[in-house]
Amino acid sequence: AQSVTQLGSHVSVSEGALVLLRCNYSSSVPPYLFWYVQYPNQGLQLLLKYTSAATLVKGINGFEAEFKKSETSFHLTKPSAHMSDAAEYFCAVIPDSSYKLIFGSGTRLLVRP
Amino acid sequence: NAGVTQTPKFQVLKTGQSMTLQCAQDMNHNSMYWYRQDPGMGLRLIYYSASEGTTDKGEVPNGYNVSRLNKREFSLRLESAAPSQTSVYFCASSENYSWARSGANVLTFGAGSRLTVL
Predict the structure, then answer these.
(1) How far apart are CA A44 and CA B107, in angstroms?
(2) Which residues in chain A have their CB less than 8 angstroms from residue B21's CB?
(3) Do B97 and A101 make contact, defined as CB atoms within 8 angstroms?
(4) For the residues of B54-69, what is the DSSP string, one character each?
(5) Which of A13, A19, A20, B83 is such that its CA lies 20 to 30 A from the CA of B56?
(6) CA gyration radius for chain B?
(7) What is the pLDDT of residues A57-111, one digit of tens each?
(8) Do A43 and B45 touch (CB under 8 A)?
(9) Does residue B99 register a pLDDT over 70?
C-alpha cells in the first residue's frame, strides 16, 4: 500500500516565486512526517519534521510545511525561491507502529533565473 | 564532524561479482540503515539494524546481506551482483529505532555509493 505520494516529479519556478511541493500520505496511526532535501551528489538532509505538536512546522532555509489531517497532506512551501534551493525533495512518513520510515518518490525543484 | 562515512563512493562490477559497501558513523547512534535510491522510486529500505547485534529485513532485502560489525559499523554485501542492483546506496543512522518513544528521531545520511553492475 502506498504510504506517501508526491505529486509532480519535477517542479520549475522562477527565482523569487513561491515554492509549493505536494505530499499526501496514508497512515493507520497518527503519523510522523518529514521533508528531506538532497543536493546534487550528496546524501539527504532533514528540512523539517512533524511529530504531532504544532500543525505548521518551520524548517531550515525558510521552508515550512503544514499538516492537514482532513486532507492527509503535508505540503512544503517557501515564499521566495532562491537558486540555491534547486535540489530533490523527499517527503517521508512513519505510517504505522512498525516505525519504518517510508519515502516518497521525490520531486526535483528547478529554479529559473 | 564526519557523521556517516560510506566507502567506496563509486564502483563498477560485472554480473556475478561480489562486493561489500562499508559504512561507519561517529555519532554513537544505536540504529543504522541501508537504503537504495532509484529514479522515480525514492529511497527503499534494504536492511536495518535497530541496535548492535541485531539486523532485520526492510522492503527490498533480496540479493543482499548485512553485518553490524560493532556499534559504529554496518556493512552491506552483494554476494552475486546483478544489473538490477545498479543503484545509489545510502547508509544512515539514528539515535535509536523507536521513533514514537523518542519523539521522532532523525536519520543522518552518508553521501552515497554509486554502484553499476554490467
Answers:
(1) 9
(2) none
(3) no
(4) --EE-S--TTEEEEE-
(5) B83
(6) 14
(7) 999 999 999 999 889 999 999 999 999 999 999 999 887 766 678 899 999 999 9
(8) no
(9) no
pLDDT for B37 equals 92
Please tell me which of the candidates A34, A46, A106 has its beta carbon nearest to residue B42.
A106
Look up residue A17 and give its DSSP letter. S
- B25-63 pLDDT, tens per residue? 999 999 999 999 998 888 999 999 988 999 999 989 999
CA distance B41 to B76: 20
Q: How far is CA A90 from CA A3, A4, A46, A82, B25, in A?
A: 13, 10, 9, 18, 23
Identity at B72, one-letter amino acid code: R
Question: Quick check: A94 and B104 CB within 8 A?
Answer: yes
pLDDT confidence of residue A54? 82
Cell digits for A70? 482532513
A·B CB contacts under 8 A: 57
Distance from first CA to last CA of chain B, Å, rounded?
A: 35
Residue whose entry in the numeric block shows the C-alpha cell 558513523:
B25
Q: DSSP letter for A69, please.
A: G
Residue type, B19: M
Residue B26's SS3 state is coil
